[in-house]
Amino acid sequence: MINIARKKPVEVEVCQWTGENVDEIKNFCGHSANFVMRKDGGKWFTTLDIFTLEGTHYADFGDYIIKGVKGEFYPCKPDIFEKTYDIIK
Predict the structure, then answer these.
(1) Residue 53 lies in a domain
(2) Structure confidence by residue, pLDDT tens digits, 47-63
(3) pTM of this prediction?
């Protein structure tokens, strides 16, 4: 049987990765965040890997980092975030 389900309203903490807020992400994610310097062409930039329950996920600039209900972290693309969440504070 196929059912219809609605996601329960749960408040989560979230921080958007801008590429420049390394300290903010470190404070938010702790050891779940790994920063790596990478070179693209002649330019160096900081990338962000998030250790999730499913393995390591790469976060692009603009992605939201969400702290889940079990204290886990995971990245979320901005378009999905905007369809799923409302910023309340």
Answers:
(1) yes
(2) 999 999 999 999 999 99
(3) 0.86
